[in-house]
Amino acid sequence: MRIKNSLIALVLCLAFATQSQAQLLVEPFGEAGVGRLEASAVLSFGEIEYDSGVDSIERTIVGVTGAYGIHSHMDLYGELGFIAKAELENSNDDDMGVLLGTGLRGVLYREGRFSFIGRGGLRFISEEYGNDTDGEIIDVDLGVTGRYNLNETVDLYGGVDFIPLSEGEIGTSAGDFDFERDNAVGFRVGGNFQLDRFTLNAELGRASEEGFIVRLGLPL
């Protein structure tokens, strides 16, 4: 029955995964445990809305994350992503890039099956879009995620993201210009499924980002 419930929850996440906070590669609710290391492989499809001049950027990212427990309730994490596709809206070309991120996440409150996890991080993106156009973006990312332990194999969660700082620059043959995110607030929901030693995570959301992200995690 537990396996059946896990599969049903996973199918529901995949079925509705059309909009997600796709640039956060690390799990928003994880706890590595003091002195322990966990790693994840990540596949992300997403589109972020920016202000006038850029409108939106579509990205496909393949990445890895790592988190180390520096305290019983706090992790230090890192993100590394290869941007296999970076495309400006209304462009007929695309190219590649890289994503680097780091931050802290920690348990704010826990009571029974419920817990709340906060995080804060810095993310840097450097990418090319084709047509002699490139860009660099720095985001400061804050968030709070609530998690509910449904059973031994399934966790469900939802959270709010806030981007207090988003600074980007586009370079073209005609000159450079600055841009930032169009919406600083986002929402995410997802499910985490224990599969023997591995965990499978599927996530969706709504606001300034649209897409889908899947994570496969392994404690080391």
Task: Provide an overview of this structure.
Strand 10 and strand 11 (209-219) form a beta hairpin. The two termini are 29 Å apart. The chain contains one helix and eleven strands. It is elongated and about 55 Å long. The protein is mainly beta and 220 residues long. A ten-stranded antiparallel β-barrel has the order 1-2-3-4-5-6-7-9-10-11. The chain has one helix at 2-15, and strands spanning 37-49, 56-71, 74-88, 95-111, 114-130, 133-149, 154-172, 175-179, 185-195, 198-207, 209-219. It has one domain: Beta Barrel (Lipocalin).
Annotation keywords:
ten-stranded antiparallel beta barrel; mainly beta; disordered N terminus; 220 residues; 1 helix; Lipocalin
Order of helices and strands: HEEEEEEEEEEE
What value does the average pLDDT take?
Answer: 86
The structural domain count equals 1
SS element count, helices:
1
Spatial order of the strands in the main sheet? 1-2-3-4-5-6-7-9-10-11
How much helix, percentage-wise, in residues? Answer: under 10%
Look at the helices and sheets and give the structural class.
mainly beta
Task: Kindly report the CATH topology.
Answer: Lipocalin
Number of strands: 11
- Return the CATH class: Mainly Beta
**Low-confidence runs of at least 5 consecutive residues:** 1-22
SSE layout:
Elements: H1 2-15, E1 37-49, E2 56-71, E3 74-88, E4 95-111, E5 114-130, E6 133-149, E7 154-172, E8 175-179, E9 185-195, E10 198-207, E11 209-219
Antiparallel strand pairs: 1-2, 1-11, 2-3, 3-4, 4-5, 5-6, 6-7, 7-8, 7-9, 9-10, 10-11
